[in-house]
Structures are given as C-alpha cells and as structure tokens.
Design goal:
Beta-Lactamase, eleven-stranded antiparallel beta sheet, alpha+beta, single chain, five-stranded antiparallel beta sheet, 444 residues
C-alpha cells in the first residue's frame, strides 16, 4: 500500500480556534485536506498550495448545490440529470453545469465562495475538537481560477457591504452551539417528549419509553418507526443508532437510569429529523442525555500496529485507507462488504479481528436499506443518494455507508474505539467517501 503523508491529530481547546490551525497550513502553502471534527461538527477544507479550493461543514452539507440552484434558477429535474452525469463521468458539478449552459463560471465561483464562507464561520468559533491535515498532491490539479485566498475571504467578512443584521464577521463569530440538551438522566422526569422535541433542533418526532409507559410528541402527522431498525440495533446489543439519508434522519438510544438501583431500568428514545443540517447536533444532544453504556478510556490502542488485511484494493483506495488509519489508534478497522455480506476487503488492528469486524458490519448492514419516507425528501428529490449510519457497540462506534456504482463492494465500514469522539469516525467515513465516489476495484 502507498505510504500516506499525514499530520497527527491536534487537540483544539476553547482557548484556540480551529481557524488558527488552518491559517498555519495556509501560510505554509500546503496542498491537501484540513479536517476539524467534534461530536457535533465536522469541517473539511481543501487547499491548493495554500489557496482554498473547497470547504464544507456538517451544518451546511449541500450549500453549494442549493446556492447554485437558486441563483441560476435550475429546476429539480435538470439538477438531477446533472448529478447523474457527474456520477457517470466523474466530473465536477460546476463544470457540468457550465458545459450544459445552466450556469456560468461566475455563478460557480459565487457558490463556492458562499459554501467556503459558511465553513470558515464554524472554524472561527472557539471549540474543543481535533484537527488533522492530509497531504493530497492531486489537489494541485484544481483550476486556480476557482480557488480563493483565505486572507481575502476574512477581509471581506470584516468589511462586508450593507447586509441584514444577521451577518456575522468570521473574525468575531459566536461560539459554536452547545448541545441543546444537558446531560440530565431522562428518568428524572425533567425531559418530556414534548420538551425534547422543542430542544432538539430539527426534530419532527420524539418518542420516549420507560417500561410500559410511552411518551410521544410530533410535529405534523404521527410517523411510524421503520420496521426492523430497533431489532437490528437497540434490541441486538447496540445502545445507540443514527441513520442519515437524503430523505431524513433517525436517531435511537438506550439511556442510563437516574440511579444505580438494580430495580430501575433505563429509557429508550427515538427521534426523527427532516432537517439533515441538524443531524450531527441532534446526535450530540441525544448522546448527552447519558447512554446506557459508558466507555472507559483505554489509550493502549494508540501503539497497536495493523494486524490483518483481507483482499487487495486498487492503489487509490489503498492509499485512502492507509490515511484513515493514520488518524490514530482510535481507528480499529476499515471494511468493505459485498451486497451478500461477504468481507471483500479490509484492514484492521488486533483490537478487532477480521471475523468479528465482518460479523458486526453484517448485522448492522440492514439498517442502510431503511426508508424514512415520512421525513423531508428534498435532497432525494434533487438526486442526492446517500445513506450513512453509526451504532454504539460494547467496544466500538460502528460507522457504515452505502456505495453506489459498479463493483463488488456495496457497503463501507469504519470501526472506531468507543473511547474516541464520534467526530473522528465521521471524519474518517467522510474522507473515504469524498475521495472514493464509486466502489473500489477489489482484486482477488
């Protein structure tokens, strides 16, 4: 496998902004991907020799497409056709829109600027988390006309033209939102389903069960919990599950009881969201209530070498997988499963052997086929196709994603130690999916 070029994870405290770390990479004129991750926020910034080529954050994951579609008056059907063409030919969305005369290069640049500015606002807020930089020399091939100087964007933010009072300077951005629910045991009765519905941003339905008592609150028609999700997760050893798709988001959790009394059982909570931009913050909110399984830190994994490999990936995927493992010892395994559940390729540490990894992924894979038809289907209507998920297991966070296109592999899995922040796992999964937009070629 190709040796990756990677900087180790750096902790960022509330005394230092992640933007400060990014400015260091810009001053060094680096070429690659800057990542900042917490439990509730994830930001990726692509640099071309210190110039900003792309950026996205988990709170505004499709801002580029929304901005461009609205600015150019592109209808849903045309936009879907553009996305299908981009998937088939593996070409950038902006390039295809210009080629089809649906947008101009000025439109594309304005949309990029809007998306990057939103990501920079997130980085400008003091926040606990971790940053990492992945060197990617092929980013040097980006069209420089579609890149930006960080200093120019910051100066524009500090001296903007007259705007509504909602405009905020990147230099003085407010601190990132705290999780909207405090870490208070649910069985204290302080949090009813209605209160949780009001406090979890983007929630359209909340259901809380304690014993035989069920408390439910909803906005609009009462949805049904998709069949099989609970059986495949909370009733099969997991204490947490979150599923995100283009047509909605679903979160479930087993919560710890308020006391240690053996007579007091915990609670079961389910939450549905139609707003995908609130997904990560909603996860942090639910997890902050107190999951039934509390992890203890175990730093021994930091020194564990790669212990097993299955299958032979093509060079581009092999390099990406190696980079994911360079995030740190918290990453236990990466696996690719076929549609039949066969482990077609994988890499892992001794903390999680290949058979255990494959068996866990196989048990959770059915969740990726769940349809959330009751939720907001705006992204599905525009042609975005994706399903990602995470479950909380006894020793790992199990992250999974569907893969689209030809090839043996149907699902991608990243196993991260339970002692790690969920943000690390989401960052790993996103990095793999972003740079490997179709299933890998797996050689026998």
């Amino acid at each position: 496998m190709l040796a990756p070029s990677i900087d180790p994870l750096h902790a960022v405290t509330k005394e230092k902004r992640p933007l400060d770390e990014l400015e260091g990479a810009v001053r060094s004129r680096r070429c690659g991907e800057f990542i900042f991750a917490t439990n509730s926020v994830e930001v990726h910034v692509f640099l071309q020799h210190g110039r900003l080529a792309w950026a996205t954050d988990s709170s505004h994951p499709f801002e580029f497409a929304r901005f461009l579609k609205a600015r150019c008056g592109i209808d849903d059907e045309a936009f879907r056709e553009v996305l299908e063409e981009c998937r088939r030919l593996r070409t950038p969305v902006g390039q295809t829109l210009v080629g089809w005369e649906l947008a101009t290069w000025d439109d594309v640049r304005a949309s990029l600027r809007s998306q990057i500015a939103l990501a920079l606002r997130t980085l400008a807020a003091p926040s606990d988390g971790a940053t990492i930089f992945l060197t990617r020399q092929h980013f040097a091939e980006y069209d420089e006309k579609l890149t930006f100087e960080l200093g120019d964007l910051l100066r524009e933010a500090d001296s903007p033209p007259p705007e509504p009072p909602s405009s905020v300077s990147l230099r003085t951005a407010p601190a990132a939102d705290a999780p909207p629910v405090s870490a208070l045991p649910l069985s204290s009765r302080s949090w009813s389903a209605q209160k949780l519905l009001e406090r979890i941003r983007g929630a359209s339905w909340v259901s809380v069960a304690e014993g035989r008592a069920v408390d439910t609150a909803t906005v609009g028609p009462m949805p049904l919990l998709p069949a099989g999700v609970a059986d495949a997760t909370l009733y099969d050893g997991a204490d947490f599950v979150a599923l995100r798709s283009a047509d909605g988001c679903l979160i479930g959790a087993r919560l710890a009881p308020a006391s240690t009394s053996p007579d007091e059982a915990g609670s079961e909570l389910w939450c549905m969201l139609g707003n995908s931009s609130a997904f990560r913050k909603a996860i942090a909110a639910v997890a902050s209530l107190g999951l039934s399984r509390q992890s203890r830190l175990d730093w021994r994994v930091a020194s564990e070498p790669i212990a097993w490999r299955k299958g032979h990936l093509d060079a581009s995927w092999a390099s990406e997988v190696e980079q994911v493992f360079a995030y740190g010892g918290e990453v236990y395994a990466v696996a690719l499963l076929s549609a039949e559940g066969e482990l077609v390729a994988g890499v892992g540490r001794s903390s999680l052997d290949a058979d255990t990894c494959a068996a866990l992924a196989r048990r959770r894979a059915g969740v990726l086929s769940v349809a959330l038809a009751e939720a907001n289907g705006e992204l599905e209507a525009l042609g975005f196709r994706f399903r990602t998920m995470v479950t909380g297991e006894s020793s790992v966070w199990c992250f999974g994603a569907e893969l689209h296109g030809p090839g043996q592999a149907a699902t991608l899995w990243v196993m991260v130690g339970r002692e790690a922040s969920q943000g690390v796992g989401w960052a790993c999964l996103t990095a793999l999916l972003r740079h490997c937009q179709q299933p890998p070629e797996v050689k026998s």
